[in-house]
Amino acid sequence: METLMARWGTDMTIVSAEEHKTVRGFFRAVNSKSWQNMESVVSLLGEISRGQYVYIGPADAAVKEGDTLLLGEKSYLFRRVEPYYFGNQPIYQWGLCVEKGVNDTWGTQSLS
User: Fold this and answer.
1) Once rounded to an integer, what is the mean pLDDT over residues 91-112?
2) Mean pLDDT across the stretch 29-52?
């Protein structure tokens, strides 16, 4: 995974209460709570109305829920972060983010 992230990933800044750090990983919009139903066609901006984004980054980045991801002109809040293990070894972290300042409509029903 480290080789894939180093070669094909994007530089992102993670901001926590303690520090700012640059990591290289993947960041993509999703359209479903289920990992089995990823969006196959993404708009040029990668935005989908539900506003959820998946992050995959290095295991040693130590990202926590509540941290902020900076990418381009936008910032995103980590709502969930977990390590992914192969055997007993963490090989990457994944997380779900929402864009800061945008309503999080995930899991809510329309009143109309």
Assistant:
1) 69
2) 55
Residues 6+ apart with CB under 8 A from 55: 12, 25, 26, 27, 63, 69, 76, 78, 81, 93, 94, 95, 96, 97
Is residue 80's pLDDT more than 50? yes
3-state class of 7 per DSSP?
helix
Q: Helix/strand/coil (H, E, C) string of 33-92?
A: CCCCCCCCCCCCCCCCCCCEEEEEECHHHCCCCCCEEEECCEEEEEEEEEEEEECCEEEE
DSSP state of 102: S
End-to-end CA distance of the chain: 44
Q: Using the structure block, give the residue that is written with the tokens 């289920």.
A: 34
Q: What is the C-alpha separation between 50 and 59, in angstroms, rounded?
A: 27
Whole-angstrom Cα distance, residue 77 to residue 83? 17
pTM for the structure as a whole = 0.72
d(CA 52, CA 10): 18
